[in-house]
């Protein structure tokens, strides 16, 4: 008998008659039932502990929407051939009008199969053979019996897609014949009437009663390295600078560092500029004028860069390209304290936070990365002090055998690149840059001329 819709009674009757359901998919096809509805009924019997079902996962293939269309109407190449043959020849426009997108797809395949040919002078297609067989349509209509190469050919043309289906084998339990449904708990009515004695109860599951053990959180490897370096610097007596201002003005990021406005690093292909708000406000007016003068004319022994410095360029907002912008702000704050009190606060300062560059992403470059930076401000400092601090810092993080090479930076003079031996790569690699901040950077801030700032990053 054929049921229009699967019912629990019908499923129970089949299990009683045959002793099991060998394959739920086959049963659904035989009875004309919706398989998902049948699975729901099987799960209900499992929950009542009347049956046990075992899943059987099956991988297969199904026609895509395009495959369904070609299974019905024929492959694009055969449709194109039929139009060309019927009309005694056809142009691209005629095929587009007759077949639409199918004509564009089919004409190329038909020419590749040498079923049609194109006249180079008229651009018209003509039939090159008398008749063709539509093997693609046959394959689409006989999908279940195709071998792997045929399936792969249809997959390449996106006419078929993988599909996954789970069938179930269902067997009855000892409680299958019992009409009483197992319940989970005792009710007040059962106790009063005494029916709990004949009632079937679901077994209690205490195996996983405590739940799954909660896994604690963990630091990201980058954060571990950051914390380790921070602790090293704190133990060396450095104070941490505030680094939470990722959006910075060109003034603090470049101009205060005595970096000319024509420098390549200030181009859009190296820096992320902010569209909104695009301009910085509240730049310190007096300091801004002193920076402008130093860039244009120099002073106190410097000739400056000798160009027309632009305040508009200086107010452009960007994502900071280095944490030296943080160092510049802190140094300006120390200079302001010195002007107000007459006392210079000497000390050691560091920052460690993310910076942003408009880089081409590859194995060694990201658009966002972390930078460690530090400086020491005091009188009578020189390269010897800088080298000593660097050796001590890198030694504490496990790097020895440092080498230093002269370098150029717009805001340090002299400058040194720092190199160390990498035991895994078995070669010397660059670790950072360092130098003594130039007077052209420090004097506009208002720091005394006999003060030196050594820095690295």
From TrEMBL:
<feature type="domain" description="Aminoacyl-transfer RNA synthetases class-II family profile">
    <location>
        <begin position="348"/>
        <end position="435"/>
    </location>
</feature>
<keyword id="KW-0479">Metal-binding</keyword>
<dbReference type="GO" id="GO:0046872">
    <property type="term" value="F:metal ion binding"/>
</dbReference>
<dbReference type="GO" id="GO:0005829">
    <property type="term" value="C:cytosol"/>
</dbReference>
<dbReference type="Pfam" id="PF18553">
    <property type="entry name" value="PheRS_DBD3"/>
</dbReference>
<keyword id="KW-0963">Cytoplasm</keyword>
<keyword id="KW-0067">ATP-binding</keyword>
<keyword id="KW-0436">Ligase</keyword>
<dbReference type="GO" id="GO:0009328">
    <property type="term" value="C:phenylalanine-tRNA ligase complex"/>
</dbReference>
<keyword id="KW-0030">Aminoacyl-tRNA synthetase</keyword>
<comment type="similarity">
    <text>Belongs to the class-II aminoacyl-tRNA synthetase family. Phe-tRNA synthetase alpha subunit type 2 subfamily.</text>
</comment>
<keyword id="KW-0648">Protein biosynthesis</keyword>
<dbReference type="GO" id="GO:0005524">
    <property type="term" value="F:ATP binding"/>
</dbReference>
<dbReference type="InterPro" id="IPR002319">
    <property type="entry name" value="Phenylalanyl-tRNA_Synthase"/>
</dbReference>
<dbReference type="InterPro" id="IPR006195">
    <property type="entry name" value="aa-tRNA-synth_II"/>
</dbReference>
<dbReference type="InterPro" id="IPR045864">
    <property type="entry name" value="aa-tRNA-synth_II/BPL/LPL"/>
</dbReference>
<dbReference type="GO" id="GO:0000049">
    <property type="term" value="F:tRNA binding"/>
</dbReference>
<dbReference type="InterPro" id="IPR004529">
    <property type="entry name" value="Phe-tRNA-synth_IIc_asu"/>
</dbReference>
<dbReference type="GO" id="GO:0004826">
    <property type="term" value="F:phenylalanine-tRNA ligase activity"/>
</dbReference>
<dbReference type="Pfam" id="PF01409">
    <property type="entry name" value="tRNA-synt_2d"/>
</dbReference>
<keyword id="KW-0547">Nucleotide-binding</keyword>
<dbReference type="GO" id="GO:0006432">
    <property type="term" value="P:phenylalanyl-tRNA aminoacylation"/>
</dbReference>
<dbReference type="InterPro" id="IPR040725">
    <property type="entry name" value="PheRS_DBD3"/>
</dbReference>
<dbReference type="Pfam" id="PF18552">
    <property type="entry name" value="PheRS_DBD1"/>
</dbReference>
<protein>
    <recommendedName>
        <fullName>phenylalanine--tRNA ligase</fullName>
        <ecNumber>6.1.1.20</ecNumber>
    </recommendedName>
</protein>
<dbReference type="InterPro" id="IPR040724">
    <property type="entry name" value="PheRS_DBD1"/>
</dbReference>
<keyword id="KW-0460">Magnesium</keyword>
């Amino acid at each position: 008998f054929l049921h229009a819709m699967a019912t629990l009674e019908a499923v129970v009757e089949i299990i009683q008659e045959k002793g099991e359901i060998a394959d739920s998919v086959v049963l659904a096809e035989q009875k004309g039932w919706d398989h998902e509805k049948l699975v729901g009924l099987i799960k209900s019997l499992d929950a009542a502990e009347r049956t046990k079902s075992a899943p059987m996962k099956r991988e297969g293939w199904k026609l895509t929407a395009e495959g369904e269309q070609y299974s019905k109407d024929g492959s694009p190449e055969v449709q194109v051939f039929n139009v060309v043959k019927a009309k005694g020849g056809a142009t691209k426009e005629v095929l587009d009008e007759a077949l639409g997108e199918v004509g564009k797809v089919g004409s190329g395949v038909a020419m590749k199969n040498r079923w049609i040919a194109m006249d180079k002078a008229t651009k018209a297609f003509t039939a090159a053979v008398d008749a063709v067989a539509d093997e693609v349509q046959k394959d689409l209509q006989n999908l279940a019996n195709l071998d792997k190469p045929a399936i792969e050919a249809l997959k390449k043309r996106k006419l078929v897609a993988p599909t996954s289906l789970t069938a179930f084998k269902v067997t009855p339990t000892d409680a299958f014949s019992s009409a009483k449904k197992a319940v989970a708990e005792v009710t007040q009515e059962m106790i009063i009437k005494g029916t709990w004695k004949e009632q079937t109860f679901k077994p209690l599951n205490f195996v996983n009663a405590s739940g799954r053990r909660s896994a604690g959180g963990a630091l990201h490897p980058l954060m571990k390295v950051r914390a380790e370096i921070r602790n090293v610097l704190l133990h060396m007596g450095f104070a941490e600078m505030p680094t939470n201002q990722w959006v910075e003005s060109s003034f603090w990021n470049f101009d205060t560092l005595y970096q000319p406005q024509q420098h390549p690093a200030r181009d859009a292909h190296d820096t992320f500029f902010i569209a909104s708000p695009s301009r910085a406000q509240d730049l310190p007016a007096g300091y801004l004028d002193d920076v402008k003068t130093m860039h244009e004319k120099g002073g106190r022994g410097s000739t400056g860069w000798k160009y027309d410095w632009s305040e508009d360029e200086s107010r452009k907002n960007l994502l900071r390209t280095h944490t030296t912008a943080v160092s510049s702000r802190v140094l300006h704050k120390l200079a302001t304290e010195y002007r107000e009190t007459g006392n210079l606060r000497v000390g050691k300062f560091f920052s460690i936070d993310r910076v942003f560059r408009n880089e081409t992403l590859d194995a060694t470059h990201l658009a966002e990365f972390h930078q460690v930076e530090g400086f020491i401000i005091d009188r009578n400092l020189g390269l010897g002090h800088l080298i000593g601090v660097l050796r001590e810092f890198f030694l504490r993080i496990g790097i020895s055998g440092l080498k230093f090479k002269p370098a150029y930076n717009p805001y340090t003079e002299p400058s040194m690149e720092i190199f160390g031996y990498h035991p895994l790569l078995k070669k010397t690699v660059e670790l950072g840059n360092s130098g003594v901040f130039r007077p052209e950077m420090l004097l506009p801030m208002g720091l005394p001329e006999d003060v030196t700032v050594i820095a690295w990053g």
